[in-house]
Amino acid sequence: MSHDPFARLRIEYGDAPLPFEAAPAAPLPLLAQWLDEAAAAGVGEPNGMALATVDADGQPHCRVVLCKGLDERGIAFFTNRQSDKGAQLAGNPRAAATFWWPAPRNRQVRLTGRIELAADAESDAYFHGRPRRAQLCSAASPQSRVVRDRAELEGFVDALAARVGDGPVPRPAHWGGYRLVPEAVEFWQGRDGRLHDRLRYRRAAARGTAAGEAAAGGAWSRERLAP
């Protein structure tokens, strides 16, 4: 197989640095800043992130979801908990997520950590803040299950719409939020010649914390990585 078509796609990333010394003590404020800068630069859906999970056989799975919350606790996303990703997270509540913002930002952020369920009140607030059509589709769709055709899928939505009429769409008990509580976060800034800047934060486990899990209030360390 010729790789020449890919060689023609090669670009340089510019020479914008990732100032190690000026980086904040914790990673999530920097992630929020980079998200804002990607949005300001016109990157489409800058909150899109690749979410990786592992099933019971050890097989990794990856898909793009939207980050719908970011605060000192971690990053939040919402989905059907009976979906494939929901089943995988129930069996192994750990995950990885990657944000990628192409030119003009040329940046990537990788997070790894544990998963926790969002509170019902948080899931309710997000669900009922969505457009009504999105509420109906999310509530009616048997996510990740085989359906006969598009007509069957649309029939599920039409049936729910007929049941609720003009009333509120109830949030299904199996639909809600997750939070990725990061234990390591890496920031990557593309630079010319592939001599990229990489900054990794790692959170130390607090005394009494189970192995491999960092306490939410644990201190962060910073280190520069070679590209």
Folded structure, characterized:
With 227 residues, the chain is α+β, with helices and mostly antiparallel strands. Helices cover 26% and strands 31% of the residues. It contains 6 helices and 9 strands, in the order ααββββαββαααβββ. It has helices spanning 4-7, 27-40, 84-91, 120-128, 132-140, 150-164; strands spanning 48-54, 60-66, 69-71, 74-80, 94-101, 107-117, 175-189, 197-203, 220-225. Strands 1, 2, 3, 4, 5, 6, 7, 8 and 9 form a 9-stranded antiparallel β-sheet that branches. β3 (69-71) and β4 (74-80) form a beta hairpin. α5 (132-140) crosses α6 (150-164).
Features:
single chain; 227 residues; alpha+beta; nine-stranded antiparallel β-sheet; 6 helices; 31% strand
Write down the Rg.
Answer: 20 Å
State the end-to-end distance: 27 Å
Strand elements, count: 9
Helix content: 25-40%
Structural class designation: alpha+beta
- Poorly predicted tracts of residues: none
Tally of separate helices: 6
What characteristic shape results from the CA principal axes?
globular
Major sheet details? 9 strands, antiparallel
In percent, how much strand structure appears in the residues? 25-35%
- Provide the succession of SSEs: HHEEEEHEEHHHEEE
Average pLDDT, to the nearest integer? 93
Give me the secondary-structure topology.
Layout: H1 4-7, H2 27-40, E1 48-54, E2 60-66, E3 69-71, E4 74-80, H3 84-91, E5 94-101, E6 107-117, H4 120-128, H5 132-140, H6 150-164, E7 175-189, E8 197-203, E9 220-225
Antiparallel strand pairs: 1-2, 1-5, 3-4, 4-7, 5-6, 6-7, 7-8, 8-9
